[in-house]
Amino acid sequence: MIELSGLTKRYGEKVAVDDLTFTVRPGIVTGFLGPNGAGKSTTMRMILGLDHPTAGDVRIDGRHYHELADPLTYIGALLDAKAVHGGRRAHHHLLCLAQSNGIPAGRVHEVLETVGLTAVARKKAKGFSLGMSQRLGIAGALLGDPRILMFDEPVNGLDPEGILWIRSLMKSLAAQGRTVFVSSHLMSEMALTADHLVVIGQGRLLADTSMADFIERNSRSYVRIRTPDRERLLDALHGAGITAVESGGGQLEVDGGKAEQIGELAARHHVVLHELSVRQSSLEEAFMRLTASSVEYHARTEPPPERPWGADRDTGTAKAAADAVTTTAEG
Ligand SMILES: Nc1ncnc2c1ncn2[C@@H]1O[C@H](COP(=O)(O)OP(=O)(O)OP(=O)(O)O)[C@@H](O)[C@H]1O
């Protein structure tokens, strides 16, 4: 179990982690979600005693990291897959870790087998692909057979086979009763892996909920409408007591499953429809709604304004590219 209580980290004026209180429980996969810069890695570094909290406290099975006698036998972590010394062979890297942490050398073979790196055990880490490095990092995390495992963005840059492998590994570790804490900025990935969700934005706790509850609350079904007769349709909908909201690009959205009613209404008022479709909002959209006000770097979704070809020829391209990205540094 990992328990955070009022955990806070400031770097000068910047509050990277802001008063986080939550518990990561055994037997399930807990997803740790937040947009870029939300404070996930900083939180994980504080759990491992690599960064000191400005305020608050974090405990691993009731103790601070530095109080654990052989920490790798309590908590194993993958923070940065490329942090391995490139000149070291995979086997040697794990052996050094084992020897310096009081772990029997025989575990090296076992974990290499578990992560599927036995065939390349004598190869130097600098020749490893990102996927192989992730597997080596995970082997290091598993080395002490710990009850708690923590992975920082383990699927970043992996191919579908690697993603599937990590997903099933995390689930099987949790099924063995271990505590599994995994960070990601992809809600869609977490929906397939995690049983519980902790969402943060700009260092603050935004949600601490079961995945089932999150899906239940955020699976919105709505009707999407495109029409060249927008004003007439809005009047007709209004007259029938149906509320439509603009959803960008001239589209309208109506909550609930009223597609037939809207279609018949449009026909009665001779309104042309280009689209009338029932949609289900994705969990990724729900996550983006939840974290919208805490995202530090926004890319504009509409295309940049069109420029006559040749105008600002020398600087136009760079300028248009710069215009397309709006950076708002909040907080
Ligand atoms: N050593 C540091 N000095 C100053 N600021 C830092 C330092 N480490 C992190 N930060 C800032 O703290 C905030 C949180 O960073 P952190 O890396 O924990 O976020 P994250 O959620 O892991 O992001 P990502 O998904 O991009 O990895 C960011 O604004 C970052 O710039």
Automatic annotation (TrEMBL):
Record keywords: Nuclease included?
A: no
Cite the record's Low complexity compositional bias ranges.
317-331
> Gene3D superfamilies per the record?
P-loop containing nucleotide triphosphate hydrolases
Q: Where is the composition biased (Basic and acidic residues)?
A: 297-316
Q: Tell me the segments the record calls region Disordered.
A: 297-331
Q: Which GO terms describe its molecular function?
A: ATP binding; ATP hydrolysis activity
In Swiss-Prot or TrEMBL terms, this protein is called: ABC transporter ATP-binding protein
Q: What organism, scientifically named, is this protein from?
A: Streptomyces spiralis
